[in-house]
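Morning - 1-deoxynojirimycin inputs below, output right after.
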Amino acid sequence: MPRRGSPGLATSGAFADKVWPVTSTERSWWRDAVVYQIYPRSFADSNNDGTGDVRGMIDKLDHLTTLGVNAVWISPWYPSPMADGGYDVSDYCDIDPSFGTLADADEFLAAAHERGIRVLIDLVPNHCSIEHPVFQAALAAGPGSPERELFHFRDGSGPDGSVPPNNWGSLFGGSAWQRVVGAEGPEQYYLHMFAPEQPDWNWANPRVAEMFDDVIRFWFDRGVDGLRVDVADGLAKHPDMPDTPIDPATGLGIAYYYQGSPLWNQPELDAIQRHWRSIAEEYSGRHLGERIFVCEANVRELDALMRFVDEGRMHTTFNFDALLCEWTAATLRAVIDRNLIAHASVGAPTTWVLGNHDTTRVATRYGKPETGRPYTLDGGDPAWRARFGDYFYPQPTDIELGRRRARAAALLELALPGPAYIYQGEELGLPEVEDLPDEARQDPSFFRTGGRIKGRDGCRVPLPWSGTTAPYGFGVDATPWLPQPPIWAGLSAAAQDTDPDSTLSLYRRALAIRAGHPALGDGTLAWDEDHPPAVLHFTREPGFGCLVNLSEAPVALPAGAELLLSSGPLDGGLVPPDTTVWLSRWS
Ligand code: NOJ
């Protein structure tokens, strides 16, 4: 398969005269891409107001080029009151003024494409912001109006209508129903599976689908290469909206995914996603190869999740199994195997991910005594929820251990078949900021639970670019929207730039090898079982090996292998614990 570098083609529409000197026109670029997640609010601040912005993203394109990523995924950059960090969208076809303008976004797209970097953006179709004009119109139009049909408005029950329409809890805490208080007092409720500022769209109404068709085309016309679909498993609700079993942690109906839930993975999703795919196909081949959809779906059973990437549906879906995985050989091996087998059955690549803006940063998670509890948002697995009902991750962190393992995990992730995602700051080895003062916190789950859930702010702290004191080059002397800790000083991109042992240097070397090595990216692997059980070793053809030492003792390099790259120093030629090596093999 050709890898990179074939000439680009002219596109159509607004960009018809533009020639993209980008990577390739091959259809399957996304099958082995390394995608870097930008959380715009915290990436780079060009105008010194303490908040990241699109011009900051343009300024830092060199960082991404030097790193060697193939694509970026930008978390929502749309106008938003920021009740949920931009996942409360008040206009799907513009840029939030604090981030810049549509012209800046166009410039970013063109500049990224010129460097061979494709651009995915976030599509947030499950809910909007209460400030979205269509929701405002629904409020104004009143009960029974066609405007209210675009959302889930229902009457309450009881003598004064004060009992919510059903028992559903919100994923951010509290009831999923918010009562509207109009000029004449309390009236109907509307559904919000997340914050009350995020009313859920009613996807049973065809006008909602039509609006989103326009949104998708708007961004594809501007040259966006793909859409990461937020809450891709939640758009359709069971039409009867039945109560769910009580969640002992909240006393309300369970909001998170379980098999048979009326909230998730409803059959109507199939048609919605196939229709989106048909839109993407219209654009595919015009330039830059396929336009793609990446699902964020928390469906836990793999056979059900694989339906999202059935032929004709979405291209990839995040592998949250890997994101949740503990740092043990047995679990990693099981997660890798079952995901590769499941994805192969539908011909989709497995999408590897170690962290994102919703989870405890990997360097901290792997420094905990228990390493399989990353999900700060919904607690994930019910067993974890029972144990850590307050969602807090209370264990002490050994950050040196965590960073060593995070480096080892990065080499493992990047050696596996399929696309890999890097959450901004992972390439710097940033830890979670666990001690943010409560006054600084912004995550709605913190407020909705009276502080019982600390939330996700600790992985969203603005990046350190340079200097030894805050704001570390995130702006000049502004106060970043979340405070940066003193430990950022030694972890800035500038501090790591010329240090050959830094995490940044490791990522750069790994991505350079991955880009040029014919065995890496899409494909298959074969396990070499000739090792202690706590040592994972697989090979990929031609001539590549990856060995991860999860045991407590150093292990020898496999016979016939030469070292290509190591996540940490070898110990007298042996691979120490919590270290991954990439190998050249000639057997
Ligand atoms: C998933 C996003 O990743 C998260 O940040 C957001 O809060 C929810 N979806 C709701 O949009």
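Note: The chain has two domains: 29-129+205-503, 133-191.

O.
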